[in-house]
Every structure is written in C-alpha cells, then in structure tokens.
C-alpha cells in the first residue's frame, strides 16, 4: 500500500530512535553545557519495548515503508540491540535496515550485528585529528578507538559509510584527510552540512560549509563525476571518484533542500511520531498502544491519516520560518538523524 501526503510524497523510510542517551556530547548535537549531569533523560519504562518497535515496523511496512534506520542518542547503548535488528530484518516488506552509530561500542558489537543480519552501518566521524575529534565529541574521546572499532566492523563484513558534519573553522581542514582515509579504506564518506536542528547547538549560517565548497575542495585532489540517484528521495547527492567504483556523498539540507522528495518519518525513543526533522511537535503512538489499546488496524488508519495531512517542508521555508517567533524544535539526540 502507498500513502501520500499533501505534496504527493509517499512514506518509504522510517528512522527509529531506540535511546535518547549518548556516551558523547558532540557540540553540534548535545552540547555538554546543556546535556549535563542533571539533564532529565527518558526513564527506561518510557522507552519503546522491542515488541512495540516490532509491531510499529509491521504497521509502517504495511503503509509502504521499505527502509528502517536505527538511531538515537547512541543506539548501541540500548541493551541487546542486535536482537532488535534481527527481528526487524525478518519483517516482510522491509528491504533495507541500517544503523547510525558514533562507533564507540561498535568494535564490541560488530560480529553480533553482522550475525543478526545487518549489512551496513553509518559511523559518525568528524575528524582524524585526535584534538579536533576530542573537542567536537565533548568528551575528549580518542579517535584511535573509534578507528579501531570501524576496522573491526569492516573485518566482520559490515559495509561502512562515514558521516562527517562539517563546521567552518572547526573541522573544515579535515575534509581532505578524511576523504583520503575513506578512499584508501574503501568506506563511503558523506559530508553533512551543519544543520539548525534543535535549539541548543548555537547554529548559525556562518558555521555552515556549503556542499558546493566541499566539492570544490575535494576536486582539487580527486577528480569526481556525478552519479544518478538510485531512487527518488535519496538524501545524499552522490559522486564517483573517476575511474573507480568508489563514491562520496553530500547531504545539503541547508544549501539545497530536498523536501520535495522527503519520504521519511521518525519515531522518538518514547514512541512519538515526527514527520519532519525540524518538527516542534510529535504524535504519541505509544499511548495509543499502551493506554488506548488500539488494534493494529485502527493504528494503521490513524498513521495513514496523519501522513495524508502532512505538509512539512522546513528546509524549503527555513528563511521565512526563521523570521517568525520560534517554537522549541525537538533535539537531534531525541529523534535521531
Ligand atoms: N549517536 C549516533 C551517531 O552520532 O551516529 C546516532 C545519532 S546522531 C543524532 C545521527 C547523525 O546526526 C550523526 O551522523 C550526527 O553527526 C548527525 N548530526 C547531529 N547533529 C547534527 C547537526 N546539527 N547537523 C548535522 N548533522 C547532525
Ligand atoms: Fe551522541 Fe550522535 Fe549526538 Fe554525537 S551526534 S552527541 S554521538 S547522538
Ligand atoms: Fe524532510 Fe523536514 Fe528535512 Fe524537509 S526539512 S527534507 S520535510 S525532514
């Protein structure tokens, strides 16, 4: 079944946050000054259970979702995550399951994840320089340990993509070293423009390095050619290193918005549905399961109606919306990337 929103966008991709806590404090996501020792994270009984997640994935699959991304906070902090992945992979209609992680616990879980049937992971890595990486992750966590984890994941047979959030004056000097590292290792690198998600990361336009600028920097060292999108709604614009089968991607939420083909929904760790990364409000699904004991058919109809009414296109409207009195946006660590 295909459901469409008011802009005729289908629902194909579901991102599920399994945990709002994280073992890092990246400055652009969970600045340590805000997410300190007294920050109120969700109590464990509020988190969706694996049974609830499985039920929801079945429902979303019946509405046309084919791709699931497990995210957080840090998803590998969620106990027995490989079991959840195995359960999701076995759901009919789900064609692709991916995991986004900061890589800290990846070495430990790599084999189990592979055995659970996972094929690919995205690891966030913003610099190879230990000082820069330590500053950006807010915990002085050494980059060498993440690099080792990535090697272990690759050795376990997982396909690896590296996500790099680029900030001007912070890690823009790391573009070429990371590109070289990924090229040599055979990992796909994706440059992500620093986004104005949440309310706490001191975002401003001057800190954004536009993808076009990154591409120009990259081309000084590596000749590149554009690749056609694999499907409508692909988030990254992809390029191939000429005369190779290796590629690199750009996620340009700020300078080249892709709302017109956005087919993604997100579920927070406490079971709220968000139809845009920049949303200010979500719709409680877990309450419908736990308190109202809604039957699957009723919940399916409810989600379908919600998607039919969807109008979100924040990135298209960023400039106008930023002039209006602002409501609190949800935080990236709560809803996942
Ligand atoms: N903890 C995991 C990780 O870091 O990979 C998963 C959750 S994290 C919120 C998902 C992705 O969002 C990461 O790749 C991270 O770099 C990205 N991200 C977080 N804040 C961002 C921001 N302000 N702009 C762009 N990307 C951001
Ligand atoms: Fe944690 Fe990921 Fe956010 Fe960094 S980007 S603070 S690792 S959730
Ligand atoms: Fe989708 Fe919202 Fe991002 Fe636009 S701003 S691409 S609607 S998540």
From TrEMBL:
> Which positions fall inside the Radical SAM core domain?
6-225
Cofactor comment in the record? Binds 2 [4Fe-4S] clusters. Binds 1 [4Fe-4S] cluster coordinated with 3 cysteines and an exchangeable S-adenosyl-L-methionine and 1 [4Fe-4S] cluster coordinated with 3 cysteines and the GTP-derived substrate.
Keywords for the protein's UniProt record, in alphabetical order:
4Fe-4S, GTP-binding, Iron, Iron-sulfur, Lyase, Metal-binding, Molybdenum cofactor biosynthesis, Nucleotide-binding, S-adenosyl-L-methionine
Which Pfam families is this protein grouped with?
A: Mob_synth_C (PF06463), Radical_SAM (PF04055)
Q: What pathway, per the record?
A: Cofactor biosynthesis; molybdopterin biosynthesis
Q: Which GO terms describe its biological process?
A: Mo-molybdopterin cofactor biosynthetic process
Look up the record and name the cofactor or cofactors this protein needs: [4Fe-4S] cluster
Catalytic activity line of the entry = GTP + AH2 + S-adenosyl-L-methionine = (8S)-3',8-cyclo-7,8-dihydroguanosine 5'-triphosphate + 5'-deoxyadenosine + L-methionine + A + H(+)
Positions that bind [4Fe-4S] cluster 1: 22, 26, 29
Q: What domain of life does the UniProt record list for this protein's source?
A: Bacteria
Give the CDD domains listed for this entry.
Answer: Radical_SAM, Twitch_MoaA
Binding positions (GTP): 15, 69, 100, 161, 264-266
**Which sites bind S-adenosyl-L-methionine?**
28, 73, 124, 195
Gene3D superfamilies associated with the record: Aldolase class I (3.20.20.70)
What EC number is given for this enzyme?
Answer: 4.1.99.22
Task: State the function annotated in the UniProt record.
Answer: Catalyzes the cyclization of GTP to (8S)-3',8-cyclo-7,8-dihydroguanosine 5'-triphosphate.
Subunit details for this protein?
A: Monomer and homodimer.
Q: Which NCBIfam families match?
A: moaA, PRK00164.2-1
Provide the protein name: GTP 3',8-cyclase
Q: Which organism is it from?
A: Ureibacillus chungkukjangi
């Amino acid at each position: 079944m295909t459901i469409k929103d008011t802009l005729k966008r289908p629902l194909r991709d579901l991102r599920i946050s399994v945990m709002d806590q994280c073992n890092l404090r990246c400055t652009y996501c969970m600045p340590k000054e805000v997410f300190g020792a007294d920050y109120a994270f969700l109590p464990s009984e509020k988190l969706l259970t694996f049974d609830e997640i499985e039920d929801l994935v079945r429902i979303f699959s019946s509405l046309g979702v084919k791709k699931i991304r497990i995210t957080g906070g840090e998803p590998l902090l969620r106990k027995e995550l490989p079991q959840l992945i195995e359960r999701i992979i076995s759901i009919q209609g789900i064609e692709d399951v991916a995991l986004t992680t900061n890589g800290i616990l990846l070495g430990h879980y790599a084999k189990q994840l592979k055995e659970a049937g996972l094929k690919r992971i995205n690891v966030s890595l913003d610099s190879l320089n230990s000082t820069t990486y330590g500053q950006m992750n807010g915990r002085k966590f050494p980059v060498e340990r993440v690099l080792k984890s990535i090697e272990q994941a690759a050795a376990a047979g997982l396909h690896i993509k590296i996500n790099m959030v680029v900030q001007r004056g912070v890690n823009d000097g790391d573009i070429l070293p990371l590109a070289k590292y990924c090229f040599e290792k055979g990992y796909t690198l994706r440059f992500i423009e620093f986004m104005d998600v949440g309310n706490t990361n001191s975002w401003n336009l001057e800190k954004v390095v536009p993808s076009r600028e990154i591409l120009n920097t990259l081309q000084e060292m590596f000749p590149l050619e554009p690749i056609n999108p694999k499907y409508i709604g692909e988030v990254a614009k992809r390029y191939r290193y000429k005369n190779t089968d290796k590629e690199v991607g750009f996620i340009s939420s700020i300078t080249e918005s892709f709302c017109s083909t956005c087919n993604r929904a997100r579920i927070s760790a406490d079971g709220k549905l968000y139809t845009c990364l920049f949303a200010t409000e979500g719709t409680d699904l877990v309450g419908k399961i736990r308190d109202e004991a809604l039957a699957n058919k009723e919940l399916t109809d409810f989600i379908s109606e919600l998607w039919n009414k969807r109008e979100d296109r924040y990135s298209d409207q960023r400039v106008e919306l930023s002039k209006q009195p602002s409501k609190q946006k949800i935080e990236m660590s709560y809803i996942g990337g």
